Amino acid sequence: MTANTDITALERDLVSEISAARDLSALEQVRIAALGKKGRVSELMAQLGKLAPDERKAFGQAVNAVKERVTGALEARKSDLEGAALDGRLATERLDVTLPVRPGPIADGRIHPVSQVYDEIIEIFGDMGFAVAEGPDIETDDYNFTKLNIPPEHPARQDHDTFYLQPKADGSRMVLRTHTSPVQIRTMLTQKPPIRIIVPGRVYRSDSDQTHTPMFHQIEGLVIDEVTHLGHLKWCLEEFCKAFFEVDDVKMRFRASHFPFTEPSMEVDIDAAAIGKPGSWLEILGSGMVHPNVIANCGLDPETYQGFAFGMGLDRIAMLKYGIPDLRDMFAADMRWLRHYGFLSLDVPTLAGGVSS
Ligand code: DAH
User: Where is 312: in which H helix or E strand?
Assistant: First the structure.
């Protein structure tokens, strides 16, 4: 084998090793083994001294040419491998800037329909000049019943399925309020007329089926001054229903009824056309002119002061408005239900923007 065939074989070997190098560090190994101080090309150069002077020039030129070509092949392969490495990084570190922003807690949380409907009702009555009043869930028997003209032996006490607390030493007992009406008493005892309030709140009765839960929500209204009459009551409730159900007109029916704390008393029905189902009446609230005994029980003179009151089941009208079929689901704390029926926290009801937005 001549020196020249050695060179040709070496070049072939090196070129195939270069193209077989899988990554930059493998390529570096090939480079060192070829062109490093003790590399195979460098060793060929070292043989130069052993050759006859006439052979040296041609051999030297041939080895240099191989060295140049191998260097060129190394560089080409290096830039290929660097390009592939960059492509690989680009593929794995890819960021799609067109993806929508992930929702944060504000977009993810939901307002319960009960809270939303409270806000809607407060917005509507607030616009008519009503203030919001509140009272405790644990109430005296006196405020929940007696001062509302429901004395101890009155049959209405039985109707309320009251939760009683243990009697106190003096024999009196507290109750979980069965309605928001005791806040009428609390307000008249502490505030001089004119009074114009609505009272949102939880109430409790020992009752449970598809349309009753032991805890539910009411909203009470009370107006006391020297001039308010039944016409004002009807107008107020009509305006409320139009705003709440967001219709231009609502047909209402005032049915004579009986509540101990009002005289006369009326139950109010609306034509279900307001919720898109014409042809039937829906009872939505109880109301009436505040009974003179109730006014007197609060230390006000019923000859001077008069007014109206109403009480509405909040859960029920929320269900009517938003098509919620079962009352018990309202309090089941099921996130799937809340995601479906709940409201976004920024959907604040306003008369200008539409109460249910
Ligand atoms: N408190 C009554 C109830 O829970 C509802 C009610 C009826 C309230 C007539 C009123 C009213 O203020 O005037 O069944």
Answer: strand 306-313
Other C-beta atoms closer than 10 Å to the C-beta of 58 total 12
Residue ranges of alpha helices (H) inside the chain are 3-20, 24-35, 40-46, 53-92, 105-108, 113-127, 141-144, 156-159, 182-190, 230-245, 292-297, 314-322, 335-341
Q: Which amino acid is at 92?
A: T
Alpha-carbon distance of 59 to 36, in angstroms, equals 19
Ligand 1, from 259, 262, 269, 283: best to mutate by most atoms within 8 Å of Cβ? 259
165 CA to centre of ligand 1 in angstroms: 23
Whole-prediction pTM: 0.71
CB of 67 closer than 8 Å to CB of 117: no
The CA distance from 142 to 148, in Å, is 8
Residue spans of the domains in the chain: they are 3-92, 112-341
Low-confidence ranges of the chain (pLDDT < 70): 1-5, 357
For 90-124, how does the pLDDT look when each residue is reduced to its tens digit (9 = 90+)? 889 988 888 888 777 777 889 999 999 999 999 99
CATH architecture of 112-341: 2-Layer Sandwich (3.30)
Q: What is the pLDDT of residues 165-218, one digit of tens each?
A: 999 999 889 999 999 999 999 999 999 999 999 999 999 999 888 788 999 999
